[in-house]
Amino acid sequence: xxxxxxxxxxxxxxxxxxxxxxxxxxxxxxxxxxxxxxxxxxxxxxxxxxxxxxxxxxxxxxxxxxxxxxxxxxxxxxxxxxxxxxxxxxxxxxxxxxxxxxxxxxxxxxxxxxxxxxxxxxxxxxxxxxxxxxxxxxxxxxxxxxxxxxxxxxxxxxxxxxxxxxxxxxxxxxxxxxxxxxxxxxxxxxxxxxxxxxxxxxxxxxxxxxxxxxxxxxxxxxxxxxxxxxxxxxxxxxxxxxxxxxxxxxxxxxxxxxxxxxxxxxxxxxxxx
Length: 273
Fold this sequence. Notes:
- The chain is mostly helical.
- The chain contains 13 helices and two strands, in the order αααββαααααααααα.
């Protein structure tokens, strides 16, 4: 059985070595045994990136540049940071849905700290995200497409993204135990959210025609997040203060909600998982 009365934070600290071991195991399980191994973590997002660049660049006037606050960038540079961040968020939330159910046998047989499982779902995506983003930054710096001075703020955005994903990860892990269609619903909703967020297009492309969408983009935390990545990586400046405050407060609120639901449900997870 699990330890239902141990606070999540204490559980994570006490079992940090186990958390690290599971993280390494999950990464190895994804890539070890295939011919290209970990390179698939780079190949998949690069293929997706290439398709978006090919399609959307063809739809845009030759030589056009897209706005990032008071500067501009070509489409590939505009797209990369936002798409990489989105891929990590998507993988984290979809994986979190199965984080408890996929380890049901382990939870039932031993005294296992179930509270670390949703954290693994978020953490396992950091490595491929870091690799593809680093490759992009190195090429962009070498070509002069971006400036290095804003990269100092990148760890803050990674921390904010972890915080934004962790609360929903705990919530989705519990929901999928009791409602097994949760993962399918989440995938569908994330597909809608992708196109409702200015990832492959600039926000001004819609707000110039539909001014009310400005409110949606201001409230949409993913829109705020990708805007912050573009500010830091492409424009070479700190993220907007209001975005950092908004994302930080929302991350705390989401974590409290997800943590509370998970804590109150842990006594039932063993029987239902």
